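Example 3.2
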Amino acid sequence: MLFHFKDKFPQLNPYWDKYLEFQERMEVPAKTILLEEGKISHHYFYVEKGCVRAALNKQGDDKTVQFFFEKEGLTSLESFLKNTPSLFTIETIEPSVIYLLHKIKVKALMTELREEPGFADVILNILAQRQMHYMNEFVSFIRDTPEERYQKILQERPHIVQRVPQHYIASYLGITRVHLSRIKSALLKKGNR
């Protein structure tokens, strides 16, 4: 189901059900590009199964920005809202089941839900959580060493290490695969995984 926050609003099931028919379900292999950097985002994506990453290309060098897993939704928000070229590519990492909802339908749904008591607060809360996540990532990238960032992943989001190929994790940390291997070796010597 596309609407990952629907459980917070069981009274709105008629709305969710109304938009079921507009969702496109896709079963795709790993390395499927859902949105290409520089293209305009016309869909909201929901990951039912699999793993997806957002990445950008810096002078031929691939940089992973974020990972998304089951029951998470995403889009290139600025592109989606402003019809501007996406700053990043959205690509599957694993074979995945993805639901898409066209932005015309997303806007129609949001217009219908605008008047529902409490709904605006939940949407703002979801957006605030996402913003805080990005701010924490930004601060960590400036403040913490790659070793500290990797240990934080191990502690807080071990599923990334279990499911994501090492070259994407290295890219996400802003280091080379060789540097990541050294970090992992050093941690093994210390007895930390």
